[in-house]
Amino acid sequence: MKRIVRLTVNGLERDVMVEPHHTLLDVLRREFDIMSVREGCGVGMCGACTVLADGKPVSSCLTLASLAHRQTLETIEALNPDGELHPIQQAYLDNAGFQCSFCTPGFILATKALIEENPSPTPDEVREYLSGNLCRCGSYAKIMDAVLDAAERHRRTTELS
Amino acid sequence: MITFDLLEPRSVEESTTMLAQRGDEARIIAGGTAVVLMLKNRLISPGALISLGNLDELRYIRSDPDGTLRIGAMTTIREVELSPVVKKSSPTLAHACRQVGNVRVRHAATMGGNLSEADYASDPPCVLVAARARVKVASARGVREVPLTEWFKDFYETAIQPDELVTELILPPQPASVGSAYIKYVTRSSEDRPCLGVAAFVDRDAGGVCRELRVAVGAVAATPQEVDAAEKVAVGHPLTAELIRDVAERYAAAIDPISDLRGSAWYRTQMIKVFVRDAILQAVDGQATESK
Questions:
Q1: How far apart are the first and last CA of chain B?
Q2: Number of CB atoms found within 10 A of residue B77's CB
Q3: Which residues in chain B have Cβ-Cβ distances shorter than 8 Å to A1?
Q4: What number does CATH give the domain B185-291?
Q5: CA B33, CA B259: separation in Å to the nearest integer?
Q6: Do A42 and B78 make contact, defined as CB atoms within 8 angstroms?
Q7: Number of domains forming the structure of chain A
Q8: What is the band of B8 on the pLDDT scale with cuts at 50, 70, 90?
Q9: Which of A28, A37, B108, B248 has a CA 20 to 30 Å removed from the CA of B21?
Q10: Mind telling me how many Å the CA of A122 is from chain B's nearest CA?
Q11: Which residue of A has its CA nearest to B102?
């Protein structure tokens, strides 16, 4: 039976009608029109449906929308509310850290969580943290450059402020 | 059309009452990483799903004065992996939790869910068996503790009753003389589930004579495999390279492994020999480092 759930997505609270079995991925795409969360594998392995829940990356394909009301949710759209690219997005662009870009929103959200947790990650730490995000174009070397660059930009900004 | 009642109790007591009322048709959902997959694949079709998301009372990691480690069932795998308390008192459990799935799965999946799912290819179970951990379960009838050695019954089957709920994982303190290790061996991509995982706990006296050896092999059969007769061979002797090899060969001979995409039964037998040996060696090394 459908029920009303209040979800907080990218800073906005909204009530939506969902079936108990609907995943957060379904609801973000259908009710919120957020197409940057994508279904790749549907089993939590690829990272294309990554969202941040209370700042931590989770798979929206394995999250029931009706239970997501406890958390603050963010998709890639939260990174540039004014249309200006977020420093992590700029780093991905400057380092050509993507080809087809299907996986990119997931990678960037995971990068954001990684850098917030560990502002100076080593290449091995980046590899470990992002090992659950798959890029079928195989842009991994460029993604690594982008993540290390993004971390450096982030450190520079936090030192200035 | 999948349809079920989604219940969100606010306490353990309310949860066990719901379980008692709904019985067999109810399923518990914690982090959801296992249950949602099962729902999607129609492996389960519960009449009611009871979410434990509101049970903050089950979200804790604490150490008793005697060193016993207590982990609430709703603590995420990621929280266990990163906890300074766990890293100090059970570094091998922290290490095994770090090997689970990927960081997104670990942010959602819970320790109680891991124990309840009883996935044969999950990393923590064999460590917990070798550590002689216990599970605390609650129902409307009361509370009981089950040793991990009696917990896993078959593929995805545990000693839990339909009206029971996992509330806590209990790890007994390990004496300073115990060294431990967990090795995950993957045959495909780095983030894959293991072809096999081996946990070893070794207790030796100051002279290097083995007092106790506990080795559990995961992902090779329905449940973590421990070979008592092989462990006993080591007790009372210094752990020489030869003796460790003998123990590993006894493990390989005693376990009847499964065949799947991650390795045939024959291959797994060969790998049991290699990784039981390596896990014992690493546990011995760890012990040496810790006592320095």
A1: 61
A2: 28
A3: 3, 5
A4: 3.30.390.50
A5: 25
A6: no
A7: 2
A8: very high
A9: B108
A10: 17
A11: A132
Q: Which among A60, A79, A98 is the end of a domain?
A: A79
CA A131 to chain centre: 14
Q: What are phi and psi of B36, to 5 degrees?
A: -65, -40
Coil, helix or strand for A82? coil
Angstrom distance (rounded) from CA B17 to CA B5: 15
Under 8 Å between Cβ of A91 and A156: no
Return the CATH number of B56-171, one of 3.10.410.10, 3.30.465.10, 3.30.420.40, 1.20.1250.20. 3.30.465.10
Of A3, A58, A61, the CB nearest to B107: A58
Boundary of a domain, candidates A13, A44, A79: A79
Residues of A in contact with B105 (CB under 8 A): 44, 59, 62, 132
- Cross-chain residue pair A62–B78, CB shorter than 8 Å: no
Q: What is the mean pLDDT of residues A41-56?
A: 97
* Mean pLDDT of the B50-60 span: 98
Mutate to test the interface with B, among A21, A140, A147 (most CBs of B within 10 A): A21
At residue B287, the pLDDT reads 66
Residues A42 and A17 in one domain: yes
A146: containing domain: 87-160
Mark yes or no for CB contact A67/B6 under 8 Å: yes
Per-residue confidence at B288, pLDDT binned at 50, 70, 90?
A: low
Question: What is the residue whose two structure tokens read 């059969």?
Answer: B221
What is the pLDDT at residue B290?
A: 46
Count of C-beta atoms within a 10 Å radius of residue A86 = 17
Question: Chain A residue closest to B48 (CA)?
Answer: A20
Q: Are residues A106 and A71 in the same domain?
A: no
Q: What is the pLDDT of residues B18-31, one digit of tens each?
A: 999 998 899 999 99
User: Considering just the CA atoms, what is the radius of gyration of chain A in Å?
Assistant: 16
CATH number for the domain harbouring residue A49: 3.10.20.30
Residues of B in contact with A62 (CB under 8 A): 32-33, 36-37, 105, 108
Q: Give tens-digit pLDDT for A101-160.
A: 999 999 999 999 999 999 999 999 999 999 999 999 999 999 999 999 999 999 998 877
Please give the CATH number for the structural domain made up of B5-51: 3.30.43.10
pLDDT of B292: 36
List phi, psi (to 5°) of A8. -105, 105
Q: Are B104 and A44 a contacting pair at CB < 8 A? A: yes
Q: To the nearest whole angstrom, how far is the Cα of B95 from the nearest Cα of chain A?
A: 13
Partners of B157 in the β-ladder? B154
Position B98 pLDDT exceeds 80: yes
Interface of B with A (CB under 8 A): 2-6, 8, 29, 32-33, 36-37, 39-40, 49, 51, 53-54, 78, 101-105, 107-108, 190-191
